[in-house]
Amino acid sequence: MNPIDIPDTLRLVDHPIARNTAVATRNLPIGSVVLTEPVLTSVLFPDKTGSRCDYCHRSDHTEPELRIRKCTGCEVQWYCDEQCQKLHWDSSHRLVCKAYLDFVMSRVYLALSDDQMMDCLVLSQLVAEITLRRPESATAILTFESLLPSPHELEAIPVIPMRRDPPPLSRIAALYQRFPNNNHVIQIHLRPIGVAILPLTSRLLNHSCSPNAVLRYILSASQKPRAEVVTIREIAEGDEVSIPYLDPAISYPERQSRLKDIYGFECSCKLCTIQLPMNIRSIAGSEVLGLVNALEPALHQFAFGEGITADFQLPEEQLCVRLPEDFRLLMDDPVLSVLTTSFSIASDEGPFEMAMSTGKTIFAIYLCIYPPCYPQIGFHLLEMAKVAWNEYTKENKRGDVETANTYLTIARRILDVYGREGDSGGPLDEVNELLELIRTSEEQE
Ligand SMILES: [Zn+2]
Ligand SMILES: [Zn+2]
Ligand SMILES: [Zn+2]
């Protein structure tokens, strides 16, 4: 029996190193959905407890009409309504509810690391799903168990005691052994909220730091969160579809070491191939601003030519493919982390000129590293537009409105590709709201 339910957009072909590669069965335009998969199981991070529903994961911040209430059985899980509570109960929670509270207060649980605690809750819920043997989960469970295990032998972790006989310990250990290299962090509006098991996505899609597709999550009432793989470039028939397992902006040595350690492979994607011979040396955090000041004007000229206008043409591919040698240091650690910290401070406290110039440099570096329609770039341009709009509301200079409008227009082109995700709100809505404010302010002029 073949446990993989391949969508008609993809075909698996053999690969000498990876198990398989998934290639497109036809030309896929930018912004198309290649694969849709409801999570087999998912658990929120502890800081989301009580503000998001433990079943559908919608938030009462973005949907204030939601009343998220505790499960009175365990007082640990929270639901937006009775329907979600019932669906979660039927799919797994009824086997663990009674023991949940005692378990999370127990010495054995509290002795675990934060990551292990998270794994332990995901594993407990997965084991409960498996124990219940519901037909709707059967294929996904088979697919999950067919995934490659982590290259490292993991120490066993406990699971919440079940109200029915769980599978044997050896099977539970084999499930856990597939966590580190297969589980996904759920991002809503580009922020992490929890961990999901997506067997089909894990089975089909390989990693690239220069990906042509990304994952987004859709949250709807009375449904498990649903992952969608969406293309961020045109993909030709026969080309491999790949997603990033980690942020491509992580420095090259760090990326390679994490990929090797967690997934057991060396990446030889386009970005890695370019960054390998660059032999980037590590620079000290204290050197970053000096270096950036020296290189900034030339880097802006290289990345933006005559300047940034609303009809700014995004490059065809990452600028690193033709990056002059002088700028290579800017792709090194810790440049981006120093710059994003300094951008966020200057955005809040000023000076405005510094925030905008640092923001532009981050934009230029993102264009070097990320594919042009990578959602993180759109998100950053929205942040820049907000800074310009805030400056306008303080200083009332029309030039700042134009700047805000320019960045929003480019941000919208990028975020339209990523499309709607999460529950309500999110960067695309914010872009449209701010554009509307600008239109209104222009009409009043
Ligand atoms: Zn819900
Ligand atoms: Zn409960
Ligand atoms: Zn790579």
Automatic annotation (TrEMBL):
Q: Among its keywords, does the record have Zinc?
A: yes
Record Gene3D superfamilies = 1.10.220.160, 6.10.140.2220, SET domain (2.170.270.10), Tetratricopeptide repeat domain (1.25.40.10)
Q: What is the lineage of its organism?
A: Eukaryota, Fungi, Dikarya, Basidiomycota, Agaricomycotina
Q: Which domain of life is it from?
A: Eukaryota
What InterPro entries does the database record attribute to this sequence?
A: H3K4_H4K5_MeTrfase, SET_dom, SET_dom_sf, TPR-like_helical_dom_sf, Znf_MYND
Per its record, how is this protein called by name? SET domain-containing protein
Q: Where is the MYND-type domain?
A: 53-97
> Which GO terms of the molecular function aspect are on file?
zinc ion binding
Q: Which residues form the SET domain?
A: 8-246
Q: Keyword Zinc, does the record have it?
A: yes
Q: Which GO terms describe its cellular component?
A: nucleus
Q: Which PANTHER family match?
A: EG:BACR7C10.4 PROTEIN, HISTONE-LYSINE N-METHYLTRANSFERASE SMYD
Entry's Pfam families? SET (PF00856), zf-MYND (PF01753)
Alphabetic keyword roster? Metal-binding, Zinc, Zinc-finger
